[in-house]
Specification:
Length: 625
C-alpha cells in the first residue's frame, strides 16, 4: 500500500525553462470560471477532420529526409479547448494502407471524412482529429484520432513511428490497432512499438520494462483484423474472436524470447483487450469504391462485425486521469501539448508531469468556480442582516462551494486547493461581516433618529418637559422610544442594538440635565436620587451590553469551531474515498489479469485431459481387438 500511495505523489513542478510550463502558469492566472458557451455548429472540427499534430520533414543537403518534427496545430487545439463536456478519445493505429481511416469514418457515422487513399502511398500524416457528439452518451463528445500509417519505408526518421504510436496511446482511452490478415507470428512481430512502450513513457519516476504500474495509464486495446479469412475453430470446437486473440498472445516456452516478448508486452501493458475479425467487405469493385458505398452495399458478415465493433466502442466511458473525473477539452489539450513538448525537446513524455499540469489548470478553474458559487450565494444576502442569520448563510454558502470543489478537483491529494479556497472564502467573509456591522450600526442610528424626531424632538424644542413633573414625563417618553426602537429591530440581536442606544442616551444627557434643573417641584434629595438612578441605569446598560457581546462572541466561536471541524472531517473522508477508489481500480485490474491467466491454465488443462482420454480410448479399443 505504501508503494502505491508513494506513486500518487505527482511532481509539482515542470522542467526549468520549459515554455509549456510558463504557458500553464499564464493560463492559471487568467483562468475564468464563466460558463464556457460553445456549440458544435460553430467549430470546424465537428464538421470534418482537421490536422491536430502535423509531421514536418527535415532534409539534408542532398534532399534526403533525416528527421520528422511534430508540431501542434493551434487552430485545432483552440477548438477542442472550448469543449467542456467529458470526452471519449478513440485513436486508430496500424501499418499504412490497412484501412484504418475507414473504421474511424464508421465511428463518426459517415462514409467520408478521414482520407482512405487508393494507392500504396500513406495518406494520413501526423495525427488528424474529428469531434462528434457522442451517439449514445449524453453530454459527451467522441474525439476520433486517425494516426499516420506505421511502417512506411519511405520515412527517413526511424523513430517517427514510435513517437506517433506513443502519442496516440497516451492521448486516447481506446486504442484501435488495425492490421490485415491473421494475427500470426509475423503480425505480432510487427508490433515492435509495444515492446518499446515502457521505455518511451515515464510514469512514477520510471521509463523501463520493469515499470509494473504502466498499465494503469494505458488505454483499452482493440485489435481489428481486416480481410480475415480463417475459421475460428480449434480442436474441432468453435472459439470466439477474443479466444483467438488470447491464444495468439499466449506464451510458448519452446519458442525464443523474440517470439514471446511482444506477446508478453501486450498482455502486460494492455490488460483490457478485445478482438474483431472483419472479412473482405466485397469484391474488387466494392474495395475500389469503399468510400462512396453505404454500409448496406457491403457483405452481410462485414456489416455484422462493423456493427458489433461500433457498438463496443460507443460503450466505452470517457477518458480520465486514473481515478479522477472525466477529462474535458481543456484537459485533453493540456495533456497533448505537454507530451508533444517533451518529444519536441527529445525527452520521454512524463505522465506524472502531464497530470500535474492538467491538475494545476483544472483545479484553478474549479477553485474559481467554487469561489464564484460562494460569492453568488453571499451577494444575494440583503444587508444589513442579523449576525446569526448572516453566519448561517456563510456556512451554507461555504458548504455548497466546497462540495463542488471536492467533487471536481483532481489529484489534490494534500487538499491544497481546498485549503486555499477556504482561506479566500474566509477573507471574503471577513469583508462581508465588516460591511454588515457598519450597515447594522447605520440602520440602528437611522431608526433611532426617526423615533427621536417622532417622539421627543418637538417636545424638547417646545420645552414641554421644563415644568413641574416634566422630568418624569420625559423619562416615560424615553422608555417608550426605547421599546419602539427594540421592537422595530427585533430581527437583530440585542447586543447589536445596545451600542447605538447607549450612545443615544449619552447624547441626551444635556437635554435631561436642563429638564431636571427646570423641574422646580423636585427636592434636592429627589434630584440626587434621580441622578444616581440615572447613573446606575447607564452603568447597568453598559454591563448588559458588555455581557451580551461576550456571550455572543463565545457562542459564535463555538459554532465556528464545530463548522471547521465538520469541514476538516469532510476533507479527510474525501481523501479516504479517493484513496479507496484508486486502490480498488488497481486491485480490479490485477484481479482481472489473474483471472485471465487462470482461464488460460484451465483451457490448457482441459485440452490435456481430452488428449489423455483419447489416448486411453485408443488403447482400450486395441486391447479389445
Amino acid at each position: 500500500m505504501n508503494a502505491q500511495m508513494q506513486g500518487l505523489n505527482i511532481l509539482t513542478s515542470a522542467v526549468p525553462g520549459n515554455e509549456f510550463d510558463s504557458e500553464i502558469r499564464e493560463k492559471i492566472v487568467n483562468v475564468s470560471a464563466s460558463q464556457n458557451l460553445w456549440s458544435p455548429n460553430d467549430l470546424e472540427i465537428f464538421q470534418h477532420p482537421v490536422c491536430l499534430i502535423s509531421a514536418v520533414s527535415e532534409t539534408n543537403e542532398i534532399g534526403e529526409e533525416t528527421n520528422i518534427l511534430l508540431k501542434s496545430e493551434e487552430t485545432a487545439f483552440d477548438q477542442i479547448t472550448k469543449v467542456d463536456w467529458p470526452i471519449v478519445v478513440v485513436a486508430v493505429a496500424g501499418l499504412y494502407r490497412t484501412g484504418k481511416s475507414y473504421l474511424m469514418n464508421r465511428l463518426a457515422g459517415s462514409s467520408k471524412g478521414f482520407a482512405l487513399g487508393d494507392t500504396i502511398e500513406s495518406k494520413t500524416k501526423g495525427i488528424w482529429a474529428w469531434c462528434k457528439i457522442h451517439p449514445t452518451l449524453s453530454n459527451t463528445v467522441l474525439l476520433l484520432l486517425d494516426t499516420e500509417g506505421l511502417g512506411d519505408v519511405e520515412k527517413g526518421d526511424p523513430s517517427h513511428d514510435n513517437k506517433i504510436f506513443t502519442l496516440a496511446t497516451l492521448l486516447c482511452n481506446c486504442l484501435v490497432y488495425n492490421m490485415k490478415g491473421a494475427f500470426d507470428n509475423d503480425a505480432v512481430s510487427k508490433l515492435k512499438f509495444v515492446t518499446e512502450m515502457a521505455s518511451n513513457i515515464r510514469f512514477r519516476g520510471q521509463s523501463s520494462e520493469d515499470n509494473q504500474s504502466i498499465n494503469l495509464i494505458l488505454p483499452d486495446f482493440v485489435l481489428c483484423l481486416r480481410d480475415f479469412s480463417l475459421k475460428l475453430v480449434k480442436g474441432g470446437k468453435t472459439i470466439t474472436e477474443n479466444d483467438y486473440l488470447e491464444q495468439s498472445l499466449a506464451e510458448n516456452k519452446s519458442k525464443a524470447e523474440k517470439f514471446n516478448e511482444p506477446r508478453a508486452c501486450i498482455r502486460k501493458y494492455f490488460t483490457r483487450r478485445e478482438c474483431f475479425t472483419f472479412p473482405v467487405p466485397g469484391d474488387g469493385d466494392v474495395l475500389e469504391n469503399l468510400e462512396t458505398l453505404s454500409i448496406a452495399q457491403l457483405s452481410h458478415r462485414f456489416k455484422e462485425v462493423t456493427t458489433r465493433f461500433t457498438s463496443y466502442i460507443y460503450k466505452i466511458p470517457p477518458k480520465s486521469l486514473l481515478a479522477s473525473k472525466p477529462i474535458n477539452g481543456q484537459m485533453f489539450v493540456t495533456l497533448a501539448k505537454h507530451y508533444i513538448n517533451a518529444i519536441k525537446h527529445g525527452a520521454v513524455p512524463d505522465v506524472d508531469e502531464a497530470f500535474t499540469a492538467v491538475a494545476k489548470l483544472e483545479n484553478a478553474k474549479v477553485e474559481k468556480e467554487a469561489l464564484d458559487i460562494f460569492e453568488n450565494e453571499m451577494v444575494n444576502v440583503m444587508l444589513p442582516i442579523s449576525e446569526i442569520h448572516l453566519g448561517k448563510r456563510y456556512r451554507h454558502a461555504q458548504k455548497i462551494a466546497l462540495d463542488h470543489l471536492r467533487q471536481n478537483v483532481i489529484h489534490d491529494f494534500q487538499a491544497k486547493c481546498q485549503i486555499q479556497a477556504q482561506k479566500k472564502m474566509d477573507a471574503i467573509w471577513d469583508k462581508i461581516k465588516t460591511t454588515n456591522e457598519q450597515k447594522v450600526r447605520e440602520k440602528c442610528e437611522n431608526t433611532l433618529q426617526n423615533l427621536f424626531e417622532k417622539c421627543l424632538k418637538k417636545k424638547i424644542e417646545n420645552r414641554e418637559y421644563e415644568t413641574a413633573g416634566g422630568h418624569q414625563r420625559y423619562k416615560n417618553d424615553v422608555e417608550s422610544t426605547k421599546d419602539a426602537y427594540f421592537s422595530a429591530l427585533k430581527d437583530f440581536k440585542e447586543n447589536e442594538m445596545l451600542s447605538t442606544w447607549y450612545g443615544f442616551v449619552e447624547s441626551m444627557t444635556k437635554h435631561e440635565a436642563k429638564i431636571v434643573e427646570a423641574d422646580k417641584n423636585m427636592s434636592k434629595k429627589e434630584k440626587d436620587a434621580e441622578q444616581k438612578r440615572k447613573q446606575e441605569k447607564l452603568n447597568e446598560l453598559l454591563k448588559q451590553q458588555q455581557k451580551m457581546q461576550k456571550d455572543a462572541s463565545d457562542k459564535q466561536k463555538k459554532k465556528n469551531a464545530g463548522h471547521f471541524e465538520k469541514l476538516d472531517k469532510d476533507r479527510r473522508e474525501q481523501q479516504a474515498a479517493d484513496k479507496d477508489k484508486y486502490v480498488a481500480l488497481a486491485k480490479e485490474r490485477l484481479e482481472k489479469e489473474a483471472a485471465q491467466k487462470e482461464v488460460e491454465r484451465y483451457k490448457l488443462a482441459q485440452e490435456a485431459a481430452e488428449k489423455e482420454a483419447a489416448r486411453y480410448k485408443k488403447e482400450q479399443e486395441g486391447a479389445c481387438m
